[in-house]
Specification:
Distance between the termini: 36 Å
Strand content: under 5%
Structural class: mainly alpha
Radius of gyration: 22 Å
Shape: globular
Number of domains: 1
Oligomer: single chain
């Protein structure tokens, strides 16, 4: 029984969510600067997590805290805990528990924020959140443009390397890729001039990220739009596609050997699969399989290891299995399907993105942005 309780207030909740969103983005830029330009790397993100943690503690005292969706948090926690406890005793219990706590928080953070903050917001407020994502995209587009024009190194996707890409204030290029894909899906559902402009900015900015994840995601989104709206009957669209493919054929060698020369070198040395997975397939083969063979028991195949902190492949679907086993994979997909069942495309993009890439759950910027931007679409 609670000693005291608070009444839920939509306006206060909106401000809290917006504070969290902008804090997370600011911490991305500060972390990026400190990592590349100071001798000692400081995880400024910890300060952001503490502030957000205070908001989460406050949520416990809201009168309607006991949401039916809390069962998912319990499912994930118990499944991961069983996995951690059933790992080989050759790994110290203290280390197993430490890895479990750090890992489970990554998964429970977005669920908690969605269930107790974003989901409760009024639909007009959720729409306003999407506008703030748009403002963030505009700011980042300006930073990317300045970086290209004035050769500002810190706003590149791969700082201090020859690899092509500009991701602005994002610390990791894959984080930027997810956020831009999320923004594009969201902006596509709005018909106003403001959001159409934002859509163009998001696509153009995404094209210079230089990541396979974005290009694959954009191709899937455009393919879905093409068939959903039967654009194969539109001559202008068909001419545009043909012209784009023709231009790609003529610039293929230039793009491959000049713009994406690092990836091309990997392709020549390691082959297509390794290039596609950016060496993650080799990590899986050389690190994950031996780890599973040496430390897993039968129960771990069902409940996982409760560890994505020390052992992970960066291939999303494999990492979910390593963390939660068969049970957890079922829970994760059921939860996200339940949240976005009114918009199957959102679940489809989530599933493919997590399957072909990694780190979806390993960065609060990505998971927060996912619910932040797409929650409105689920109620349309």
């Amino acid at each position: 029984m609670k000693v005291f309780s608070l009444t839920y207030n939509n306006e206060i909740a909106k401000k809290e969510v917006l504070v969290m969103f902008w804090l997370i983005l600011c911490s991305e830029l500060i972390t990026k600067y400190l990592f590349y330009y100071t001798e000692e790397f400081h995880r400024i993100g910890l300060i952001t997590k503490v502030i957000i943690g205070c908001y989460c503690i406050k949520a416990f005292f809201i009168k309607d805290f006991n949401s039916n969706l809390n069962k998912w948090i319990v499912f994930f926690f118990i499944t991961g805990l069983i996995g951690a406890l059933t790992l080989s005793s050759d790994i110290a219990l203290q280390l197993r528990m430490r890895n479990f706590i750090f890992s489970i928080l990554k998964y429970l953070f977005p669920l908690f924020i969605y269930i107790h903050f974003i989901k409760k917001l009024e639909i007009d407020t959720k729409k306003e959140l999407v506008k703030h994502l748009g403002y963030a995209i505009i700011i980042n587009a300006c930073l990317i443009l300045f970086s290209i024009l004035f050769k500002i190194e810190i706003f590149k996707s791969y700082v201090n390397t020859d690899r092509f890409g500009y991701d602005g204030y994002f610390f990791r290029s894959w984080t930027a890729s997810y956020v831009y894909l999320i923004a594009i899906i969201s902006f596509l559902h709005f018909k106003t001039k403001f959001f159409k402009i934002l859509l163009v900015i998001a696509i153009l900015s995404g094209l210079v990220l230089g990541t396979k994840l974005f290009y694959l995601g954009l191709a899937l989104i455009l393919t879905y739009q093409f068939f959903k709206y039967k654009l194969y009957y539109n001559k202008a669209v068909l001419v545009s596609i043909f012209t784009s493919l023709l231009a790609l054929c003529f610039t293929y060698n230039f793009l491959l050997k000049k713009i994406f020369k690092v990836l091309y070198a990997v392709y020549l040395k390691e082959g297509l699969v390794t290039t596609f997975f950016s060496y993650r397939n080799l990590t899986f083969k050389e690190t994950i399989i031996p780890y599973v063979n040496e430390y897993w028991s039968f129960l771990n195949y069902i409940f996982g290891s409760g560890d994505n902190n020390h052992n992970y492949s960066e291939i999303g679907i494999i990492d979910i299995y390593l963390m939660f086993g068969v049970m957890g994979m079922l829970f994760v997909n059921l939860f996200y399907y339940q949240v976005f069942k009114k918009k199957p495309i959102l679940f489809f993009v989530f599933f493919l993105g997590v399957f072909f890439s990694g780190n979806f759950f390993h960065n609060p910027t990505v998971t927060f942005s996912y619910f932040f931007a797409l929650a409105y679409l689920c109620e349309k």
